[in-house]
Amino acid sequence: MIGLGIDVGSLATKALILKDDQILAWSVKPTDISRKSIPAAVDDVLKRTGLRLNEIENIISTGIGKKEVSYATGTLSEVSCAVRGTAFLFTGVRTVVDIGGQNCRAIRCDGDGGVIDFALNDKCAAGTGIFLTSMAKALEVDIGEMGQLSRQSTMEVNITSMCVVFAESEVVTLIHRSVPKADIIRGLHKSIAMRVNGLVHSIGLESRVAVVGGVAKNDGVVSCLEELFKQKVFVPGEPQLVCALGAAAAAMKRGGAN
Amino acid sequence: MITAGIDIGSLSSKAVILKDGQIFGRALTPTGADSVQTAGRVMQEVLDKTGLSFKDINFIVSTGYGRVLVPFAQRNVSEISCHAKGSSWFFPSVRTILDMGGQDCKAIRCDATGKVTNFVMNDKCAAGAGRSMEVMADLLQIPLADLGRESLNTVRGEQDISTTCVVFARSEVIGYLHQGVPANDILGGLCEALASRVYALLKRVGVEEDLVISGGIAKNIGVVRRIEQKLGINAKIAYEPQIVGALGAAVFAREILAKIMPG
Question: Are the beta carbons of B107 and B202 closer than 8 angstroms?
């Protein structure tokens, strides 16, 4: 049984193919206004597997642009896909924290792919990936380096502004005051972690915890979350693919029953 | 008696010199990275304009975000108190003040003497502060000073803005521009959104006439008109709304001086 999952996110479009519980291939393309990211990611993942679109029994789309995938045989919510994708990778996870480019979700689940409760922030950019993207720009560092840089921090810096717009000015002021970038970055990681922590506690934190979504690639944020959660968390090797994986797993399960 | 008020704001710094109960001089300059330096610069500017020298000033009060960073001020007073005091100096009938600067928005109630009786403020979210207008002016390539006027000349009516966060609204606006929505219609929606947020803040503190609007936003006629419409009253605006805080500080300086040096 083959399933294709497509996650059309606000910043990146992800496609992943599963066959008999094995990940065959995946692809990530930046989401653009012209919607070319969907065919680009799907063509890429098909090329990697040598499959044709009509050979795939079920295609499930998810993410903010899930309705843009005209040939999908079904759609699933991002919450459901995050939980299913996590359950595919780790057993017994009760809390899934999905930090994407423009939103953040805290989800309580039954450990077996079922959702119990969730809270969503899609109103305020603080506590989402865009917070880090803006700050990386202000600091003139690569977003991928932020986690590693924050480990060189030797001094505690607190970012007092919550708002991304205000925090940007605060960071510029700190740079002018010659505060080391590593310390600023560590402060930013704490700031985003505190916002996410607030969301998680609104639904109640239950062990075991998984952190997924693009921001989970930043181990600095993850370690700040572990401090706040007072426990180790599970992070997949490719955390931004978890929703696409969840969609693919659901597609695979449906088999040929269209 | 000559006193001075210095208001070190998040985006601009202001200085006012008060001589015998009259505004004798005023200056406005962008706040740089170094607030101490900015304070010295804006003070020198106002002295140059009036032909006074530093030793002519009997008492100096500082206010604003950077009020503790003015080394030559004898006293500092909160910007809430200074805005009430300054507004009351311009308009003795004032009972409610809306002050919106670059980084915060305050709704203040005061009594007949300009003393604060209650206030609420937003300094957490840029969507309810003047900065949102700066971001959009930059994006739409329209001078900040023209935004308000342009927003009142919509082509097809106001374009509703569905997101709150400035960061998200920026992407939303880019989307509308791609769809060919006229910039004026987008501005109409943005000013309406800001006015709604301000209105909610004013409701929390309760509005009693007269209402004075101060701070940079008072220069945005698009936001001012929409707030007036929602409240069903006309607002009073000082001829130089950005100096109200500094003026209030100078008035405080005068009052303090009168107390410590009677006659």
Answer: yes
Of A76, A74, A75, A90, the residue nearest A216 (C-alpha): A90
Q: Which two tokens stand for residue B42?
A: 């804006």
Among A152, A231, A162, A148, CA closest to A190? A162
Nearest CA in chain B to A121: B165
Peptide bond into B210 cis (omega under 30): yes
Q: Does B165 touch chain A (CB under 8 A)?
A: yes
Taking an 8 Å cut-off on Cβ atoms, the answer to whether A123 and B165 are in contact is yes
Decide if pLDDT at B263 tops 90. Answer: no
A130 touches chain B (CB under 8 A): yes
Q: How far is B88 from chain A (nearest CA, A)?
A: 30
ipTM metric:
0.80
Kindly report the nearest CA distance between residue B84 and chain A, in angstroms.
Answer: 25
CATH classification of A1-90+240-258 is 3.20.20.70, yes or no? Answer: no
Min CA distance, A130 vs chain B (Å)? 8
**Inter-residue contact A17 to A248 (CB < 8 Å):** yes
Task: List phi, psi (to 5°) of A28.
Answer: -125, 125
CA-based nearest residue in chain A for residue B35 = A173
What are the domain boundaries of chain A? 1-90+240-258, 91-235
Give the total residue count for chain A.
258
B141 and B214 part of one domain = yes
Q: Which of A122, A134, A163, A170 to mutate to probe the B interface, most B CBs <10 Å?
A: A163
For residue B156 the two structure tokens come to: 């097809």
CB B196 within 8 A of CB B132: no
- Considering the entire predicted model, what is its pTM? 0.82
**Dist CA A103 CA A90 (whole Å):** 23
Nearest to B15 by CA among B40, B51, B52: B40
- Please give the order of strands across the beta sheet that includes A58-62: A22-30, A12-19, A2-8, A58-62, A74-75
pLDDT at A257: 40
Asked if B135 and B192 sit in the same domain, the reply is yes
If one counts every other C-beta atom within 10 angstroms of the C-beta of residue B74, the result is: 16
pLDDT at B12: 87
Beta bridge pairs of residue B8: B13
- The answer to whether B175 contacts A102, with C-beta atoms less than 8 Å apart, is no
Q: Is A32 an interface residue toward B (CB < 8 Å)?
A: no
- Whether domain A91-235 has CATH 3.40.50.10350: the reply is no
